[in-house]
Amino acid sequence: MAIVVVMGGSYYGYQQLADDGCTGSIRLTLAATSEVAPSIDQVAQRWVQEGANVDGTCVAVTVSTVNSSTMAAAVAGEHQVTLAGLGKAPEAVKVPDIWVPDSSAWLLRLKSEAPGFVPSDNKPIAQSPVVLAMPKPVAEQVGWPNKKLSWAQLLQLMQTSTTLNTSIASPTRDATGLASLLAIGQAAGAGEKAQGTKVKAITALAESASSLRQELLERFPRSNDPNDIGQSLSAAPVSEENVVSYNAAKPPVPLVALYLDPSPMPLDYPYAVMPEVDLQKQKAAAGLRAQLASATFKNALGAAGLRSPDGSFGAGFARPLGAPDASPPASNTVGGAGDNGGTAAAGIDASSLSQVIGSWTAITQPGRVLAVFDVSGSMNIKVPTANNQTRAEVTRKAAAAGLAMFSDKWAVGVRLFSTEMVGKQPWKQIVPISPLATSRPTLQESISQIVPKEDGNTGLYDTVLDAYKEVKRTWQPGKVNSVILFTDGKNENDDGIKIEKLLSELKRLNDARKPVRLVIIGIGDTVSETELQTIVKATPAGGVFITKDPAKMSSIFVEAIGRRTGASGG
Questions:
Q1: Where is the VWFA domain (predicted)?
Q2: What is the DSSP letter of 51?
Q3: For residues 551 and 485, what is the distance between their CA atoms, to the nearest angstrom?
Q4: pLDDT in tens for each of the 570 residues of the chain?
Q5: Residue 164, class by beta-carbon neighbours within 10 Å (0-12 exposed, 13-18 middle, 19+ buried)?
Q6: Contact 382, 370 (CB under 8 A)
Q7: Residues 482, 370: contact at Cβ < 8 Å?
Q8: Which is it for strands 53-54 and 411-422: parallel, antiparallel or unpaired?
Q9: 153 and 258 in contact (C-beta within 8 Å)?
Q10: CA distances (Å), origin 262, targets 104, 113, 239, 345, 481
């Protein structure tokens, strides 16, 4: 349930306008997360009282408190898209003129799904590092404060300790969960062994995950009783501000903030002016933005347990023991959020975020997918960046990695396609859509059958249509029902249907009550992205993902699971 709170100072601001006799006013609305909204409101109302104006027209500011995931859902709905893991926002939640989410990751995710979403400014106004929170007695057991942990060491502890109860906030709904999974993935490294480590870590965290950080904080021990400490939450990635606020209430067992190496993407509170805002409001937003660069605002942030964007802190900051004097500046932590795209630091961009969310979705959410693999003759082409393995060999590896990632909550089917696979039919069923809980060995064995057909062409249109019909025919509620098709070519099938027939049939099959997601992954440089986009646009959900380098197919596959629209990859 979303809670929207309008700060009390806003009414006072409106009253001041009347008292000052303004004949007109610019009424600016701003929504921010609960930890930063009061500080913004304090500075905004002071600005209003001092006569804030744009070209002689007075300015009033209304500051509302809205959870970042709730507002992200509202913005997505306004652009007629959805973000993985988020439902629709309540109708009471309206998109403001200015939005200050807790992380630029929300802006990146929205931009990747809705190209029309182009907010301006986007620069951070505050910062809070992502830390590993532990009850003090537990932290002392792992060597705090003398020993500094890394994310790699945390991974080892998660695998070897029988008493460390570690949890996380869902990365689809919480920026600290997303940042920590990015850090865990980087600590695990690359390769098949690393993939297995990441899957195990995500699976373990998912078993006890909370929807949001506040739920995590409520699971820490509430008494000094050793039994309570042993049965409560032992560790969770949260923000530094969460630890400061938690300890301010003088709990029986305080929390310790562990600053793990390397520093993950912090919460950076970007100041995003919405694209629809008119010129006068843009000027007013710029005026308010200038106020938020003041020493007054820095001190207000410090009193609220937050840092300035440069990582330093103002007066009243209750610095956790072991906290750095200054954390890394927030301005360069996330690429792609600025007006000009920016430069992603540490590989953090929309694609990286989608891959993390895709891994989480595959492991935690129930789904049904019919995987359809191209076995035309061109799949025998060798891939220089993959040690000269063929496209088919690379595809088999990607399929095996994807299957290993899916939890037993999923049901998966496998089809192969080329031309004349069964008579004139261009596709062949290998395994019907079956629960992984009982059919995993059969599905694993089926991957070995992804073998190119000599001189086989690409019967794309018939294959897409028949796969779509099958998923709709066997559609199940409460799950994501999908077709994921891998191809390295464009339709070449004289015996098959034409594009017009395919599009009209896909549109006819559209059913809002039984949505089917169509995802096409294009492999190599011989696919026609225009053709694939035309096909997918005839369906209500899905996307096209192009990887010019087939060796990157595994990461593109995970990204496709984590996104609701498509993207071209390198």
A1: 368-561
A2: T
A3: 17
A4: 444 556 544 444 444 444 455 656 899 999 999 999 999 999 999 999 999 999 889 999 999 999 999 999 999 999 988 888 888 899 999 999 999 999 999 999 999 888 889 999 999 999 999 999 999 999 999 999 988 889 999 988 888 888 889 999 999 999 999 999 999 888 887 766 777 778 888 888 888 899 889 999 999 999 988 888 889 999 999 999 999 999 999 999 999 999 999 889 999 999 999 998 999 999 999 999 999 999 999 999 999 999 999 999 999 999 998 888 888 886 544 444 333 333 333 447 888 888 888 888 888 888 899 999 999 999 999 999 889 999 999 999 989 988 888 889 899 999 999 999 999 999 999 999 999 999 999 999 999 999 999 999 999 999 999 999 999 999 999 888 999 999 999 999 999 999 999 999 999 999 888 889 999 999 988 899 999 999 999 998 888 989 888 888 888 888 887 776 544 444
A5: middle
A6: no
A7: yes
A8: unpaired
A9: no
A10: 19, 29, 15, 13, 38
| Length of the chain measured in residues | 570
Query: How many H helices and E strands in the chain?
Result: 20, 19
Output the CA–CA distances (angstroms, integers) from residue 411 to 366, 373, 428, 448, 535, in the order listed.
8, 17, 19, 19, 25
517's tokens: 């997601």
Q: If you search the block for the tokens 């009414």, which residue do you land on?
A: 11
Q: Is 310 helix (H, G, I), strand (E, B) or coil?
A: coil
Beta strands 57-65; 53-54: pairing state: antiparallel
Q: How many Å apart are CA 174 and CA 240, to the nearest integer?
A: 15
> Among 23, 28, 66, 33, which Cα is nearest to 47's?
28
pTM: 0.83
**Nearest of 374, 418, 336 to residue 553 by alpha carbon:** 374
Q: Tokens at residue 456, please?
A: 């086989």
Instruction: Tokens for 232, please give them.
Output: 């409560």
Separation between Cα atoms, residue 494 and residue 426, nearest integer Å: 11
For the beta carbon of residue 512, count every other beta carbon within 10 angstroms. Answer: 6
**Does residue 175 contact residue 68 with C-beta atoms inside 8 Å?**
yes
Q: Are 405 and 362 in contact (CB under 8 A)?
A: yes
Whose tokens are 């103002």? That residue is 314
Burial environment of residue 298 by CB neighbours within 10 A (0 to 12, 13 to 18, 19 or more): buried
